[in-house]
Amino acid sequence: MKVQGTSSTENLLVLEKIAANDITSRANYCYALFWSLGTATGLFLYYSFMKRCRQTKGNWTWRDTVLCNYCISEFYILLFSMSSLVHRPDYMHVTNINCAVLSFVFNLACICGEFLQVLMALIFACHKDHFPLQRFTRVQDRPIAAVGVTSLLSLLLCVVLAVLREQQPLHDYTDCQLDPFDAPYTYDVVKMTIGFIFPIFLKLVLLVVWILNDPSFLSSLKDNPVYPAVTTVTFACRLFYNIVLMDRAAMKPGKPSLWKEALMTVAEFVLFSGSSICLVLVLCLHGPCRATLKETAGHLQKCCSGIGGRDANRRVMATHIEFQQTAVTDN
Fold first, then answer.
1. 276-303 CB burial, b ≥16 within 10 A, e <16
2. Among 38, 108, 115, which Cα is nearest to 79's?
3. What residue ranges do the domains of the chain occupy?
4. Which domain of life does the UniProt lineage start with (predicted)?
């Protein structure tokens, strides 16, 4: 009886693992589409911003500067997501130091993207046309310096997370997770605080300041559709991710079930998909990028029409030559 009970339990575990892996694999296939779309969009955005830089001879607006750096952060998130995309439902097997570096750079891209959204909110809220304090209105006149300070702040916060991450022998191999379950509970709490709650709080405060100081708030929001679009998508995706992260962290120091691990993988793919969607939104809603897209589509249409026209002319010429040859033969 004990042997039968043990066998039954093992069979249930095998079936549970198969079902969990099936969920992970389906999420992986779905995210592969988002990854392809986001990667292609990111590369086109690089081309668009570089073309914009050459046309303006480096005299970008603050929107171009901030959005270009924001797109770089989101594109790096897609690049680092390949460690999950390629290896799921298993994990990438690397040394602890390589995994720590991967996690550090991933956190840097995520936190930098959040604080660049805060920077956009700060510029909108403290615009010189309606905000009385000149010290804050100077931010939009020095966008490169503002982006540099934002990146430096993000780097310091990521160093804090790296210190909180559990230190293990550097050259031992491990199954690498971007947010490892073996990390202390403090790591998860601090990451959610500085990477999600704190930026959301700052954006809400700046939104209130923007509403109070700008009498034409709705028209300003309509004239700058990129900010509300990317902020909404980022909030929804990272809210789901952080809820799942804290739910898994509540199980420490135990071991997460297979369903929890599968749900965590789905949450990671949702987080990565948010970056892909944000890149598409920047391409569609930012005026210069949208103009470059229309111009490129027009060139491709002309090229295709030219190729089609040449093929049609060739067919007409071939028919005419064949007709002449037939007439000569009859004579």
1. bbbbbbbbebbebbeebbeeeeeeeeee
2. 38
3. 2-284, 286-331
4. Eukaryota
Is the pTM for the entire model greater than 0.90?
A: no
Q: Are 204 and 121 in contact (CB under 8 A)?
A: no
Tokens in use for 245?
Answer: 């992260």
pLDDT, tens digit only, all 331 positions of the chain = 444 556 667 777 777 788 888 888 888 999 999 999 999 999 999 999 998 888 877 677 888 889 999 999 999 999 988 888 888 877 888 888 888 888 999 999 999 999 999 999 988 887 766 665 556 667 777 888 889 999 999 999 999 998 888 777 777 788 888 888 888 889 999 999 999 999 999 999 999 988 888 788 888 888 889 999 999 999 999 999 999 999 888 888 777 778 888 898 999 999 999 999 999 999 999 888 888 888 888 888 888 876 655 554 555 444 444 444 444 444 4
Tokens of 39: 């990667």
